[in-house]
Amino acid sequence: MTDRYAVMGNPIAHSKSPQIHARFAAQTGQDLAYEAMLVATDGFVEAVAAFRAKGGKGLNITVPFKQEAWQIEAERTPRAQRAGAVNTLCFLDGGRVLADTTDGVGLVADLLQNGLPLRGQRVLILGAGGAVRGVIEPILEQQPALLVIANRTVAKADELVQIFADIGALSAVGFDGLAGQQFDLIINGTAASLEGEVPPIPDDVLAAGGSCYDMMYGKDATAFQRWAMQHGAAQALDGLGMLVGQAAESFYLWRGVRPEVAPVIQQLRAAMQA
Ligand code: ATR
User: Fold this and answer.
1) Is the CB of 129 under 6 A from ligand 1?
2) Domain covering 3-102+241-273: architecture
3) What is d(CA 119, CA 96) in angstroms, rounded to the nearest whole number?
4) What are phi and psi of 124, to 5 degrees?
5) Rounded distance, CA 252 to CA 274, Å?
6) Cβ of 130 less than 6 Å from ligand 1
7) From atom 29 of ligand 1, which residue's Cα is the shortest distance away?
8) What pairs with residue 122 in β-bridges?
């Protein structure tokens, strides 16, 4: 019987995950079905239970349910345990449930793939919401020289520093606290791009030769990518590679097979531009 997987979120109509996993399955010869499921904001726990009851093998979880998914009784990977959010559930035989967060692995893999190693670099993350929570530990594992989290609401950045401070050099500021500092890599994890906005960061915050990465993506360059190009970034990347990378890590957890991400990123990019 074909194994069933799904992504649950709200909204979910524009999710690219079904396409991505269909391509991974074709590429690796795995027999699986993967669908997008719209779940009512107050119906997440019930939806997961119903999916499991029908024999579903695994789930991706997206906005706004990642923190609620963390509450589900499961064996959590250490990175998921600490992040307080999960994007992958794996339902094993015998009722065991594994929970993980693969967003950060996807981000770091995409940075490395694009020739942007983090080791020894000064890294700035904009934002302190759910999108950022899941990527801090994998970034710190790469041993940047320092990681600064800048957020509109400084208290949320402070909270993340408290959670992750023992792994590496980490600090929190408001956007105005960035004056006089420079970074080799700036990662945008705010929702500002959704509104076509860029957080109020200083014009000289990107070091000469530095690069920028927006966790968002779209058909056209995001507002933050445009800011990056206007401010001399060597590279101004969007988050499509991160999306495919987190999917590949989830696929590996479920199936034990690592799909190739590069051809899938290319196919999605071409389809988006068409
Ligand atoms: P997500 O789970 O997608 O990260 P979230 O938890 O609502 O969503 O977090 C959104 C992030 O984008 C937050 O860091 C938010 O800043 P606040 O914590 O101060 O709310 C940030 N954000 C949203 N719109 C923004 C804007 N126009 N300018 C700057 N930051 C913005």
Assistant:
1) yes
2) 3-Layer(aba) Sandwich (3.40)
3) 36
4) -115, 130
5) 30
6) yes
7) 199
8) 146
Does the structural domain 117-234 have CATH classification 3.40.1190.20? no
Check pocket membership of 199 for ligand 1, CB cut-off 6 A: yes
For 101, the token pair is: 């967060």
pLDDT at site 187? 98
- Would residue 66 show up in a list of annotated catalytic residues for this protein? yes
The Cα–Cα gap between 242 and 214 comes to 10
Query: Which residues of the chain carry a pLDDT beneath 70?
Result: none
pLDDT computed for residue 43 by the predictor:
98
Please tell me the distance from the alpha carbon of residue 201 to that of residue 230, in angstroms, as a whole number.
13
The answer to whether the CB of 187 falls within 8 A of the CB of 215 is yes
Q: Which of 105, 59, 106, 101 is closest to 81 using CA atoms?
A: 101
Calculate how far, in angstroms, residue 153's C-alpha sits from the geometric centre of ligand 1.
Answer: 9
User: Can you tell me which residue has the tokens 């080799």?
Assistant: 184
